[in-house]
Each structure stands twice: as structure tokens, then as C-alpha cells.
Amino acid sequence: MTQIWDHILKTRDTTQLNRFFVITFADLKKYKYYYWFAFPAFVAKPAWEIGDEGWRSATEVLDIEGVRSFGCRLQIC
């Protein structure tokens, strides 16, 4: 996971997040198929917690320029 994060920081390219794994098993006698997907995910340590006030929109916490700044950093501007 650190390799993916380092790649994103160096190149600002998020295509590494498109990788995934599929584990499959087919029980041919019973016609049952099993599959599991694995995607990269970032985990916060310590885990993020929602406060007593609950979820708030980004515009309640940041001004509009702050929201646009996050969008540009994620290359959606």
C-alpha cells in the first residue's frame, strides 16, 4: 500500500488505485460459484471517528475555495 501512496505523491497519478484482485472458486458438482474481490483502501491509524455532531458537508467546514482546492488536488477541476 505504501508503494501505491508513494506513486500517487510522486506522479499525481491515481491509476494505481484501479488495481484489484479476484479470488474465485467453482463447485462444478453443485453449480455454485464463489468469488471475492479485494481493492486497495487507505486506513487511518488511529481510526477516524464521527463526533457527536454527526456528518457535516464540506461547505460547512471549509469555504468554497477550500472545497475547490481539494477538487483540484484530486484532478477534478
Mean pLDDT, rounded to whole units?
82
Beta-strand segment tally: 2
| Biggest sheet layout | 2 strands, antiparallel
Distance between the termini: 26 Å
How would you name the oligomeric state of the polypeptide chains in this document? single chain
Large-scale geometry: extended
Overall structural domain count:
1
Q: What report would you give on this structure?
A:
- The structure is a single chain.
- The chain is of the alpha+beta class and 77 residues long.
- It has one domain.
- It is built from three helices and two strands.
- The protein has helices at residues 2-11, 58-61, 64-73; strands at 21-27, 32-38.
- The protein has a two-stranded antiparallel ribbon with strand order 1-2.
Structure, briefly:
The protein is α+β, with helices and mostly antiparallel strands and 77 residues long. The protein is 31% helix and 18% strand.
Pick out its properties.
about 80 residues; alpha+beta; two-stranded antiparallel ribbon; 2 strands
